[in-house]
TrEMBL record:
UniProt membrane topology term: Multi-pass membrane protein
Family in the record: Belongs to the major facilitator superfamily. Metabolite:H+ Symporter (MHS) family (TC 2.A.1.6) family.
Upper classification of the organism: Bacteria, Bacillati, Actinomycetota, Actinomycetes, Kitasatosporales
Species the sequence originates in: Streptomyces levis
Taxonomy, superkingdom: Bacteria
Presence of keyword Methyltransferase: no
PANTHER family, A to Z: ALPHA-KETOGLUTARATE PERMEASE (PTHR43528)
Family annotation (InterPro entries): H+-coupled_symporters, MFS, MFS_dom, MFS_trans_sf, Sugar_transporter_CS
Principal place of residence: membrane
Record keywords: Cell membrane, Membrane, Symport, Transmembrane, Transmembrane helix, Transport
Keyword Ribosomal protein: no
Annotated Pfam families: MFS_1
Subcellular location: Cell membrane
PROSITE patterns: MFS, SUGAR_TRANSPORT_1, SUGAR_TRANSPORT_2
Name this polypeptide is given: Glycine betaine/L-proline transporter ProP
Length: 438
């Protein structure tokens, strides 16, 4: 199906506007991912605060269960805010998503624990995680479309890599915050009030992101749709038309490694190292930080390569690297040596960065402008809900019954197989006008 906007009518954003948009996308992604990742990094402490004493293992599973439930709402938020983005504009959807995330995270930082409100505190925590899920689900496709539709074709992946690097940097900052707090504060203080600090930081960061996004114009592609009167009433219906079904199928499979890998390699890593390999909590956070730091540096590099040689070679290389390196890296983690563990984390971070740098340009380039964010959000968020948010819960539960320390490696490697197959089946789209796709 051809795009509703012809290449001749698609305007190009000036470089100054493109720089502002890229900065806004990176800051917004930073806030969204910082807020979401803090929960994962502090899961062990949240389990203590929000569940009764004496059932630590079950409490951790329930804590990751609440983490996973929020991902059920990602497709909901993706579709609702995706349709808003396709009908009203990318910018309003981005502003709303950021406001929801910052507000919900701030409330989590203010919630009383189980000892004060009992089950009520758990239910409120669950409600805030649901709102966070809706927010992140709508943020991804709206923000990435916002940056990608402003970017020139020959630099699209490179410019879109800055929000991606912003997301790993956000996890690195969240990781560092958790490390500093757990290192400097005694356990009693951390469980009493220290854990709240990273969540409450969301309020000022959200205000900054809100101010920046409110000042921007919408994308040239969306403005052209408005001017030609080609905004569709129900973009979700168009997603499921026969002409778009092959692209939709790819949109469900392409993010498999992105979904599983991000949450296993980065977010679940500190808990895995602490609860299953007997690392201290600060040491587990250091290993995760090494993986995040290496990925953050490598993402723009791989994105620039993909603008020159294509999306498929970069993502296929990343998939092969993960398949080959996942099990050896986790065996190295199992040695308990800090230097080797940091090295293994860094290797996994670099291998994953090739996929992470390219997945969003590939998703963006699957669909035409009038339904892009709805379709993009649906495929990406359903897969993230199934393989991303549930990964810590699934792996914790399987470890409790099998005791197999290599489960995370198998999980990530299998997801890389799925992404690799989809990437191989997908056509090359690098460097072309977005109106030429689909």
């Amino acid at each position: 199906m051809k795009s509703a906007v012809s290449p001749e009518t698609l305007r190009t954003a000036p470089p100054s506007e493109t720089r502002k948009v890229t900065t806004a996308g990176a800051i917004g992604f930073f806030v969204e991912n910082y807020d979401n990742s803090v929960y994962g990094f502090l899961a062990g402490i949240i389990a203590i605060v929000f569940f009764p004493e004496g059932a630590e293992a079950v409490a951790l599973i329930f804590t990751f269960g609440i983490f996973a439930v929020s991902f059920v709402f990602r497709p909901v938020g993706g579709v609702l805010l995706g349709m808003m983005s396709d009908r009203v504009g990318r910018r309003p959807a981005m502003v709303l998503a950021l406001s929801l995330m910052a507000g919900a995270t701030t409330v989590i930082g203010l919630l009383p624990g189980y000892s004060s409100w009992g089950i009520g505190s758990v239910l409120l925590l669950l409600a805030m995680r649901m709102i966070q899920g809706i927010s992140v689900g709508g943020e991804v496709s709206a923000a990435m479309s916002f940056v990608g539709e402003h970017a020139p074709p020959n630099r699209r992946a490179f410019l879109m890599s800055f929000p991606q690097a912003g997301s790993t940097l956000a996890n690195l900052v969240g990781n560092g915050s958790a490390f500093l707090l757990t290192s400097l504060l005694p356990a009693e203080a951390m469980e009493s009030w220290g854990w709240r600090i990273p969540f409450l930081v969301a309020a000022p960061m959200g205000l900054i992101g809100f101010y920046i996004r409110r000042k921007l114009e919408d994308t040239p592609a969306f403005i052209a749709l408005q001017e030609e009167g080609k905004i569709v009433r129900n973009p979700l219906r168009d997603v499921f038309t026969r002409d778009n079904r092959p692209q939709l199928a790819l949109a469900f499979v392409l993010p498999m490694l992105n979904s599983a890998g991000f949450f296993v390699i980065f977010v679940f890593m500190p808990t895995y190292l602490t609860s299953q390999l007997d690392f201290t909590r600060p040491h587990g956070l250091v290993v995760s930080a090494c993986a995040l730091a290496c990925a953050t540096v490598a993402i723009p590099f791989f994105a620039r390569i993909s603008d020159r040689v294509g999306r498929r070679p970069v993502i296929l290389t990343s998939c092969i690297a993960i398949i080959v390196l996942a099990v050896p890296s986790y065996l190295v983690l199992g040695t308990g040596d800090m230097f080797l563990a940091c090295l293994a984390g860094g290797v996994l971070g670099i291998a994953f960065a090739g996929n992470y740098s390219v997945i969003h340009p590939m998703m963006l380039e699957l669909f035409p402008s009038h339904m892009r964010t709805t379709a993009y959000a649906l495929g990406y968020n359903v897969t993230t809900a199934l393989l991303g948010g549930t990964a810590p819960l699934i792996l914790s539960a399987l470890y409790a019954t099998t005791g197999n320390l290599l489960l995370p490696a198998f999980f990530v490697a299998l997801s890389a197989v799925g992404t690799g197959i989809a990437a191989y089946a997908n056509k090359e789209t690098a460097g072309r006008s977005l109106t030429d796709f689909a």
